[in-house]
Input
Amino acid sequence: MESDADLLDMIRALGDVVFSTPRGDCCGLLDEGFAEAAVGGMDVDGTQPSITCRSSDVERLQLVKGAQVTLGTRVLKVVRPEPDGTGMTRLVVQG
Output
């Protein structure tokens, strides 16, 4: 498994974004991938934004369900953290 420094280097090499929280700043990878949801029996297309960052940063900044993150001018709320077991966590967010 990579070290925290290696994971941060990887995030930066892939085009990181910096987001802020009430407890500090963090680097991550923003994904605004396609998402489909069933609403009232109809399929609705949209996006489901997420930010992938180091699990150590998620713990340090206490990025749990309901936590607020600011990305540029966007204020987003963590819907759920999804740790992948490799030292990285995908934060599913909504705003």
